[in-house]
Amino acid sequence: MAIEPRAARCCCCNARITLIVLLFFYIFVGAIGAIYWIAGTSDHAYQKYHTYLLCYRVWGFVGLALYIPLLYGAVKRQSRILMAGFIYETITAVLIGVLCLLVIIMPSVQSMICYLYLIVYREAKRFQDNR
Which stretches are transmembrane (predicted)? Predict the structure, then answer.
């Protein structure tokens, strides 16, 4: 069995503690969100968004169901569970990043298309008609 350098042990320990704190935070926020959305289902304003809220609620419970075993793995130092949690969090971070980029880029693309149609295309057509 190889002995790890002290710096590597400290780095792994700090990463594990950070993971535990983040998982506690995710579980806390997820539980509050789930309770809030369950209480809001009887409100008539939300009835037309019932399917969306149901999907959001189910996804929240799935997230909680995933975070609890990941927290157990982090506390008990289970390497397979920690790697599964790392992979899951990496995939989630990439998907959220892509979603944020789409939210930022799509309006710009739509604005550029509108600009090209309204200004450039009409000016080119007017210039061609004047010839």
Answer: 20-39, 51-74, 86-106
Place of tokens 């790392």: 86
Among 71, 90, 92, CA closest to 81: 71
SS (H, E, C) 88-111: HHHHHHHHHHHHHHHHHHHHHHHH
Alpha helix (H) ranges present in the chain?
Answer: 6-39, 50-76, 79-115, 122-130
* Alpha carbon distance 35, 57 (integer Å): 9
Cα–Cα distance for residue pair 43/57, rounded to 1 Å = 15
**For residue 123, pLDDT beyond 70:** yes
d(CA 79, CA 72): 11
At 68, list the tokens. Answer: 């609890």
Average pLDDT of span 38-62:
60
Distance in angstroms (rounded) separating the CA atoms of residues 73 and 79 = 7
d(CA 21, CA 71): 9
Chain position carrying tokens 């600009």: 115
